Amino acid sequence: MQEFDAIRPYSDEETGTAINNLVRDPEFLDMIGRFKSPTLAKWAPGMLRVWVKRWLAKNFGGLTRIDDLQARLSGYVGELVDHTTTRVTHSGLENLDKQSAHLFISNHRDIVFDPMVVNYLLFANGFNTTRIAIGDNLLANRVFAEMMRLNKSFVVRRSMTSPREMRDAYIMLSAFINHSIDNNESIWIAQREGRAKDGLDFTDPAIIKMFYMSQKKSGLEFGEAMNRLHIVPVSIAYEYDPCDIDKARELETRSRTGKYVKAEGEDTNQIMRGLTGFKGHVHVHFGAPIADAENTPKELAARIDREMHANYHLHTSNLVAYQQRGIHPDSHASRDSVSDAVVTAEAWSAAEIEAAEAEMERRLDACDPAIRPYLLDMYANPVVTALEAHNGNGSTDTPTEHS
């Protein structure tokens, strides 16, 4: 693994030292303190810091393996999921082999919760967790970077300036991903750079091309090399997005001015909001591993998109936004078209629809009028792509509730 030192997660041999360093880090202690007790963090930060340090040392100080750390954290992750969702359901895990590594290519809506909920479901169902791809733009915070490296995260370098640097970085990333799969370590990676703030989930063919860059000299054809990665399309669907207003504001600003400049600490704030904010029902669909990959990155990316869209679990919030956005001239017809397409995997009562309409109105009232269309679009667009996928003979699975 030495050739990947610039991007790889921590190894078991490094885990104990990294944990002990964090337990003594004031910035980390303050971060955990704000999470566990915002009131004490404000009025008695010094006392809280001492308590957090003792608590961390007692619960995590003796751990020396990544798997043991994740097992110890699983209960806290479960509590976080329970407190921020009404339920988490999943489908498709029966298609996966617990003894095999997979390359999970996922749509991307939340910076940390996306890979966290995937790993949460894998762990709870007896699968090994994944190594997580994370952009170097998110690692400016030193403490967050340490936490992510301890959680099996590896770095996708995006800050290169020259074409040669970019090529070398992508070849290393490609080699690391292939090396991981060959050594039975699964990978989670987003289908494109950045979150899909507009609700449109489309795979960047450049990501698919990157997987092959380190394999060109091996003599493998593109399709054969992709088959060896056991690619699994993953669709993550949130009933409500805790960062929806922030995303809508960014989209409106970009549309009006042509650019958007993030404020200092904005990513960190949205990470916390995404983790702790209310999400309602969250559903994750795991596709069947691709064993007959297309011959070009563009064709394979299109196939992944079709499978993601066909198996995206639509919520009442999506239907309500689809109707309010006026995509279909007749709201009753739009509701029927969704039901007829069998893309929802569940039936909604009139009361559920009314509750969703009231919640959507509440969120719209909290927005400036200029950004309301963008907020509606991010909830409505998954209906559009799901219907298009269904018309192209997509399919859905019945969800299984996880408790």
Structural features, described:
It is a single chain. By secondary structure, the chain is of the alpha/beta class. Helix content is 53%, strand content 10%. The protein is built from 17 helices and 8 strands. The chain has helices at residues 12-23, 26-36, 38-43, 45-60, 66-84, 113-124, 142-150, 163-182, 205-213, 222-227, 244-257, 266-276, 297-310, 316-324, 331-340, 350-365, 372-391; strands spanning 85-91, 103-106, 131-135, 153-156, 187-190, 231-238, 280-286, 400-402. Strands 4-3-5-2-6-7-1-8 form an 8-stranded mixed beta sheet, with helices on both faces. Helix 9 crosses helix 13 (297-310), helix 11 (244-257) crosses helix 17 and helix 14 packs antiparallel against helix 15. The protein starts with 11 loop residues before the first helix and ends with a strand.
Walk me through the topology.
Layout lengths: L11 H12 L2 H11 L1 H6 L1 H16 L5 H19 E7 L11 E4 L6 H12 L6 E5 L6 H9 L2 E4 L6 H20 L4 E4 L14 H9 L8 H6 L3 E8 L5 H14 L8 H11 L3 E7 L10 H14 L5 H9 L6 H10 L9 H16 L6 H20 L8 E3 L1
Parallel strand pairs: 1-7, 2-5, 2-6, 3-4, 3-5
Antiparallel strand pairs: 1-8, 6-7
Mean pLDDT across the residues is 91
Measured distance between first and last alpha carbons: 37 Å
Shape designation: globular
- Structural classification: alpha/beta
Helical content class: 40-55%
Characterize the biggest β-sheet: 8 strands, mixed
Q: Report the portion of residues in β strands.
A: 5-15%
Q: How many β-strand stretches?
A: 8
Radius of gyration: 21 Å
- Oligomerization status of the protein chains: single chain
Poorly predicted sequence stretches spanning 5 or more consecutive residues: 328-335, 339-343, 393-403
Strand order of the largest sheet: 4-3-5-2-6-7-1-8
Count of DSSP H/I helices:
17
Instruction: List the helices and strands in order.
Output: HHHHHEEHEHEHEHHEHHEHHHHHE
